[in-house]
Amino acid sequence: GLGVEVEAEGDMTSVMAAASPVSVQANYLGKVFDEIAIAIMWNIRPLNDCWFLTFQIQATSSQSSLPFTPSGCSGLTSLSTATCVATGFVDGESYRFTVSTLCLNAEASSWPSDPSDLVVADAEATTTTVTSTSTTTLRTLCTAGIPFGPGINASTCQSTWSGEECTVQCFGAFVGGAKTYECYEGALFPQDGIIRCEHNKCTSKGLPADGPYNISGCDGKAAGETCRVVCPVSEGYAPAMFVYTCTSAATFEGSAQPCVKRACARGLPIGLGVNASTCLGKVAGENCSARCVDGFEGTPETIRCGTDGAFKGSTPSCGRQKCDILDALGSPGIQHDCMLYGEAVKHDESCTARCALGFEGTASNLKCDAPTLEGEAPTCKARECTRRLPAGPGVNGSDCRGKTTGQMCEAACRYGYEASAVGPHVSVCKAEGAFNGSTIGCAPQACSDLAATSSFVGQPADVSTCLGKVHGQHCLQFCADGYDAAAEEFRVLICRAASNYSAAAGFTNDPGGEPTPLACTARPCTFGIPNMLGMEHNCTGTSTGQTCSIWASIAYTYNASSVSGHDQEWACGADGQVSGDFPAIVPKTCDVPVFGAGIMHTCEGKSPGTMCWAYCQVGFNSAFFEYHCNATASGVSLAAAASLAACTISGRRLDVMPSDRRLQGACPTSSLPSGYDGAQYSHQFSGKVQGETCLVECADGYTIDGDPSLYTCDSGSFSGSSLPTCNANVCTKGFPQALGVMHTCNGVVTADTCTASCGSGYAGSSQTFTCSSTGQVTGTNPTCTAEACTALALNAEFDTSACQGKKTLQTCMVGCMDGYTLVGSAASYECTTSGAFSGALPTCQPNQCNSGVPSGTDLSVPSACSSLTIGQKCSVSCASGYDGTSTDYTCQASGELSGSLTACSPAECPNSVPSTSELSNDCDNIKFGAACYVSCASGYQLAEGTSPEKWKCAWDSANSAVALQGALPRCNPKLCLYNIPPSSGMYQTNCSGIGYGHSCEAACAAGYTGTTQILKCEINQMLNGTHPVCSALVCSSRSVDNVVNDCSNTTKFGETCFAMCATGYTGDTSEWTCGLDGSGGVSLLGAEPTCTPKVCLYSIPAGMQYRHNCTSTAVFQNCTVECNTGFEYDGAAAPTSLTCGVDQTLVGSLPTCVIATTTTATTSTTTSTTASTTSITATGTSTSGSTGAPTATATQTSTATQTSTETETSTTTKTTTTSTAAQVEVVSISGSWQMTLADGTDPDTFVNDPKVKDAMSATLSYITGVPAENIAVTLSLARRLQGARSLLGSAGADAEGDGDVDGDADGDADGVAGRRLASSSVLVAYVITLLGAMLPEASIAQAALSGSTEAFLGAVIAAKLAEAGTSGYAVSVAFMAAPVVKVSTVGVAAVNTTTTASTTLTMTTATTTTLTPSAPSATGLAILVPDVSNSTVIVAILVAVGGCCALVGVGLAVVMLRRSRARGQGLSADYGSGGGGGDLDLDAVVVLEDDNMMVNPPMEDVPTLPEA
User: Fold this and answer.
1) Strand, helix or coil for residue 1167
2) Residue 1218 and residue 87: Cα distance in Å, rounded?
3) How far is 679 from 677, CA to CA, in rounded Å?
């Protein structure tokens, strides 16, 4: 079938293509319509795999070597065709003809037949009468065309004469329908088809139905043939073969033993820890599991026993299973090698558990028997840590005493100390016996500010040296500067930085008691008491810390524009001086009273303490009146010193002359007495004019002695008495005074200056003061700063911190430094004006250090370190067995020994354990006091009952060094357990019992070949190396006559094969085994089969013309065929030899035997008349629904009466009538088929898939041979065509034989196309373009389409869908509509020609024969329709029917069509009563009227037809 590959076994003659046609004859017929006609006839042999397409006729002219297909012999698409009439030949030339069979599957097409030659000569005469003497064969025996071959029985045809028929049948193991052959002119021609005999093949009936038997060798076996039923070795069965025979009843006979699966013996998985024991004894196809043995882990692998006897599958990867570590091994102090790098000890491995460094106990040896670790954990006791206990100033390490390895303790700070960093400060007792952890630094806690406590707040008189003191330090409490002790001069305090002393900032009296303020009295201030003019105060008697006020007196007022224009507060400082800012004041001025007439005065703007004068003007009596501006209870007022001023007019009136009559000239001051402008005088001389007066008086700050002087401006100069006497006043206010200030201002008078400077012990710049007119010295007080005393330099035991920064006249207390104890009282020192302190030393005694002495077994501490006093030192070094340098410790003021802890490390013992391959140890880097163990190395194990040996690093006093000390263990090598080659099967080994480090050999056993391998036992107890690759030896082939075997040269040692009789022979079957031949080699062993040749049954000559000796001829033997008596060889023919083939058929050519002839010379005249009509019609098909191939039909009708006497003349009249149609060009072939989609296929997806269209085009191209680009295909769902009626869709089959092709019983023309189609049906319509092709040439493609069955079309479609890459489509073809040919032009012409010829023959017979032809019948119909776009439609109907419808012209034509009853024979039509038409099945009515065409019009619209 399509896509099936055939694997041939044995004889290939049963698988072949179409056999070449034989017995080709070419007979000259004369001229037809002036064309030379030749009848070509042939016989065909059975076709096997040929999907028949056409016969190909080829002619070659003597004038040209190019073959051509003669006209009239193309498109021969019927298997029943065995002749054609060819035209177009040239007189006088010779032609050679061959016939070939063309198949759709090109590989099955035949080769051309043997050629038949013919010389063409025009011998036809119109009318001839001949009287002659001729030699005539009375009867012609058919010797050509006799069918033969396997299974064909043509014995009844081998003595058949001209005009006779015979029956050919199938016989023996062959089946097929009998066929009738007719003898014509020496050759047999089939009448109802070619005989086809096929083997009567057996089904599987009789073959073993159950079991794994391979029965494929029995497929297609025919009766009499044998086959082998075998146990399928490829499926793992042991070789076994059983012979079965196909009987004539189409069943097999034979018996078979059960097939036995082969046991696997090779490829058993091996490897480290692999257990494949469950695979032993497994046979082919069975599975087993290769697992890991106890103690190993890995994923099991499924192993399958393969069909070749070897195990298949992956070897599991087995790793040693880890042991569960004993919980006890996790106990503190146990050290073991049962877990290394995160990996636990594995199966069969040993490990050692021992007491870790820092613990003591006996080691244990443990062995892993996965998952259990066997053995006891050691009992280990932790050792006490004696080194590097937390120590240092203020450190409390008592929690760490007695701690053992691994234990933790927390170091704390002692009372009065605090950690320098956030804790906890945990130390761990390490395995080395020393503590290691967070180092705590303890610093003494600081006491807070004593002055800030509730008892001392607001007590400025009490001071101390306690600020910044820390726990354990001493300080002094005493009265501050500016205060005097009322009772105790000082107290000694000690800082106890603890919560219970928080009320006193952590201080306590030494020796005890809570501190309280001293009784101190304030000292009065004596410096800086204010003495300023216009100011009053209350500062006299103010003491240290007190304040006083300064304000303006009644005669003064505040300066509102000054920021200090208000009362000011002053304070009495500790230095004995009051200080502050002076208020800004201004004196008040006295109001001037209203004086009487003639009185002038100088009293404007006078301030308290000043004086002025009132005096009389010129013209009044001369008098002077003294006034004073005095302070009063309410302010200031101007009061007369004696009497009030009063002036009387004198006798001279010039002085009171009106001013406008006075002389206006001003008196110059040059006329005044010398000295008038002295500072002691006050006057207004400037601008005085004639008659005006001016008074000269003493200025402020001066006192007048007598009266003032009066001067008058007269005649351009002043005149008057002498200047008054003025005495300077002494200043009594504003003298400079401040701490350390000295001055010279006592007794200074107005306008005099004095100096203020700093005294001894003070520093500052001098200032100048001036005695002002107000009686107060003015100037800036110098800034005198007390100078600091030189630092008090005393011995280290004295605490002089209170004296730091002290200045002139300040005092301080001197006590003892930390680390010393004060005996007696503290000393008071004063900073003198000389810059040095003055005082007596106190008594201070040094303290002894009683803490901080280092300890530890790694230290060597001298006893002197326990009795040091402050400042003394001692040296600490490392003890024996430890390395390090010595360190000095110093007694500190805190009472602690201070120094860096000596870094002493245990010394390291060199590894002195002997280095051998069987020993292992962990004794590298072992330190003093620690231990290690010596055990067995990998690949070795401790002797039974022994354990690892302990070695200890100890002090070797003899050598003054450390050294390892201990004994050696006893160790034995481990045995290899894995990858050991088996000592059977294909291997020979000595690897059993091999220990670590030893080697063994593995070699191939007898019957195998390979290289011997050396394997070595490795540390993992597995042999390292590969097993030898052992290949079974191959047996050489064994040759026995007439025997074949399946052993070839590949059968290996231990394998079996079978020997049986060759094709054409029969006998038993033997089993051969490849085994040892005794000489070290192998050979095939087993009995030889007994075989006898078969006898030929087919194609044995049978006919009277032959005699032979071919009966019972055996395979490969020959026999001879000769002409029988009464027959003679034709020409140079001679006896032939036939050979019996393996298919039991005789092969070869038969001799040509003809009947011996008799020649009679007779003169007679016979007249014979023969009427003959030959109609050769070229027909085409229309697009209106032709379902058959175009045909060219030659119908010959003869009626003859022949009377023969001894002398008889016969006149024959031959009449030929020819009706021809014009040449037709084919435009296209169209058609359709319906497909049903399988369930699950979406119809819409299917019809819209472009690949489906491509597959349909490829299908048509494959069937027709037309290129795919000339083919157009459309697909539509059948459900969209419901109710439609289409000519293209009309299809059916006359299954009932009643002429009704619509598939129903009533002939009502509802047909397939008119029925409702299923929704899963798809209609495929196609158009094959063949523009310009001649009708006969196109008929090949049409015939191929017409000859295809639904099954064949479906198979091709399936293949092309697969080639197109589609998937998921399953279709079946429901029906095929016949192809329709569309032509482009029609030319109709009728030519009637009658030819009469008379011939006189001389016959030798004396018989009379009357021939009566049968009635003509309709053999074909062609409707030729041009393109409907033409303006005129020409319809020609050519019918070979007597009395019906000759020709319809232009205008109207109604044609009723029906599908022909036989595929490939075109259309038939009956119309009217003249043709004897009978019942018609009307599938469609086509109305052609002018340029319009109507399909299936309403019947009432069909025009009335004329009588036929």
Assistant:
1) strand
2) 15
3) 7
Give percent of the chain above pLDDT 90: 22
Percentage helix, strand, coil for the chain under 3-state DSSP, each rounded to 5:
5, 40, 55
- Measured in whole angstroms, the distance separating CA 1106 from the mean position of its chain's CA atoms is 86
Classify strands 636-640 and 693-698 as parallel, antiparallel or unpaired. Answer: unpaired
| Cα atoms in the 13 Å half-sphere on the side-chain side of 1076 | 8
Asked if residues 267 and 284 have their Cβ atoms less than 8 Å apart, the reply is: no
- Global confidence as pTM: 0.42
pLDDT value, residue 1202: 35
- Which pair of structure tokens corresponds to residue 16? 């072949």
**Sheet containing strand 1321-1334, strands side by side:** 1271-1277, 1321-1334, 1225-1237, 1371-1383
The chain-wide mean pLDDT, for the chain, equals 77
Over the stretch 408-421, which tens digit does the pLDDT of each residue have?
A: 999 998 888 888 88
DSSP state of 1352: H
The DSSP result for 131-193, as a single string, is -------SS-B--BS---STTEE-GGGTT-BTT-EEEEEE-TTEE---EEEEEETTEEEESS-
Q: Sheet containing 187-190: give its strands across.
A: 152-153, 165-170, 179-184, 187-190
Return the amino acid letter for 148: F
Is residue 1098 within 8 A of residue 154, CB to CB? The reply is: no
Strand bridging mode 1399-1401 / 128-129: parallel
Name which of 1317, 1318, 1300 is nearest 1309 in CA terms: 1300
H or E segment at 956?
Answer: strand 949-956
* pLDDT tops 70 at residue 387: yes
Please confirm whether the linkage preceding 371 is cis (ω < 30° from 0).
yes
Distance CA 220, CA 1428 (A): 56
Q: Are strands 1452-1459 and 1436-1439 parallel, antiparallel or unpaired?
A: unpaired
Task: Report the DSSP pairing between strands 1484-1489 and 372-374.
Answer: unpaired
Q: Which of 243, 256, 242, 251 is nearest to 206 (CA)?
A: 251
Q: What is the C-alpha separation between 313 and 658, in angstroms, rounded?
A: 161
Scan for tokens 């001016």, then name that residue. 694
188 with 181: CB under 8 angstroms? Answer: yes
Amino acid identity for residue 80 in this structure:
S
Cβ contact 173:189 at 8 Å: no
DSSP state of 261: B
Q: How deeply is 1209 buried, as exposed, middle or buried, from its count of CB atoms within 10 A (0-12, 13-18, 19+)?
A: middle
And the tokens for 1104? 């009277």
Angle at 1485 between CA 1483 and CA 1490, to 5 degrees: 155
Report d(CA 1398, CA 1376) in Å as an integer: 52
Structure confidence by residue, pLDDT tens digits, 661-677 = 445 678 888 888 888 88
6 Cβ neighbours under 8 A, 6+ residues apart: 15
d(CA 720, CA 673): 9
**Across-strand partners of 920?**
935
> Would you tell me how many other CB atoms lie within 10 Å of the CB of residue 90?
11
Residue 1397 near residue 1212, CB atoms below 8 Å: yes
236 alpha carbon, distance to own chain's centre: 43
Contacts (Cβ under 8 Å, ≥6 apart) of 249? none
The DSSP code for 900 is: P
Query: Exposed e or buried b for every residue in 1048-1059, given b needs 16+ CB within 10 A?
Result: eeebbbbbbbbb
| Residue 517 DSSP code | -
Q: How far apart are CA 157 and CA 168, in angstroms?
A: 7
Count of beta carbons in the 10 Å neighbourhood of residue 975: 14
- The backbone region for 809, taken as left when phi is positive above 0, alpha when psi lies in -120 to 50, beta otherwise, is left
Provide the total of helices (H) and of strands (E) in the chain, helices listed first: 4, 118
pLDDT, tens digit, for every residue of 993-1028? Answer: 888 989 999 999 888 999 999 999 998 888 999 889
Q: Starting from the edge strand earliest in sequence, which strands make up the sheet with 507-509, in order?
A: 462-464, 474-479, 490-495, 507-509
